[in-house]
Structure formats: structure tokens, C-alpha cells
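Pinned message: reference record for VanZ family protein
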Amino acid sequence: MQRQGSIGGSAAIRIRATGGVLLVAHLAFVAWLTLRPLDVPWVMPANLRPFAGIRADLALGWQEAARSLLDGLALLAPLGVLIPMAHGRLHTSPLGSLVRTVAAGALVSLGIELLQTGVPGQVVDVDSLLLNTVGVALAHATVVPAARVWLRRRSRRAHRPTVPQEEPSQGRTPTIPRVGIAP
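Predicted structure (C-alpha cells):
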């Protein structure tokens, strides 16, 4: 049986396809949520100073700050799981995977922030970029290593060679007497 990918067979294809479909669906949802025009009477100026928006949220009280920070962390957090899932590598460096995923999440977040400059009612906020990137890193660090360990164990169990058990002895093997060759 020929193995494909690092998981093997159709399981790898199903995981990659599912990851790809979920990744596209999540990115479409995020684009709809963050890039639609808002009808507002006035707009705050762009926040280009790191942590200024987070400090302002904390000044409003812990409930408002928690809601705002969790919204920022959760928006792109699924990318921390969906990007490695769509990539489909089972045997890879954990640190390399984390760095690649966080970099991709940061670039997606930066792209969203840059696209928001042309959308009425949307404001560029560097704190959103930071929170989105941290959310991707947290999701990746909490889910992906454990999932890879589980999939590796499952893969080893499925591909464990079965050792045929010896059949009980049925006695001595009969021999045939040799016949000489004629001259």
C-alpha cells in the first residue's frame, strides 16, 4: 500500500481538504465582518501607537476591556489551527510550524488592516494587528502540538505490522529419497 503525505492514504487528503475548506470559509467570514462599510455618524482616528487602544479599553473597566480584548484575540485565532490543518504535515518542527503559522496570521491581519483604510466606517488599529497575531499564536500553541501527537499515535497504531503467529507443529516434515541420475 502506498502512503501519501505524512498521515497516509485518504486520511491525509480528507484532513487537508477539510482544513482548506474551513480556512476559506473562515477567511470569507472575517472579510465580511471586517471589510463591510459601516454607517456611522463619525469615526475615530486611526490608532498607530501600539497598546494605546488596549490602555483605553482597560480604562473603561474590566468588563469592557475583557470583551474588547477577547474579540481581538478570537477573530483570527482559528487560523492557528486551520493553517497547519490545510498544510497537512504530521512530522514537522513544532517551533517552525508555530513561526510559519504566526507569520501567516500576522500577514492576514496586516492585509485586513490595510484594506480597512478604504472602507467607510472602518478604522485602522495597530492593536488589532497585535491581538489577532497573539490569538493565532495561542490557538496554535494550545491545539496543534496535542493534535499532532494524537494523529502520530493513531497513525502508528494503524500501520503497525501484524506479526503472524506461528502455527503449531504438525510433526516431522516427510522427506523424499533422492534418486540418482542415470548414465
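Pinned by admin. Summary line: Residues 126-158 form the longest helix (33 residues).
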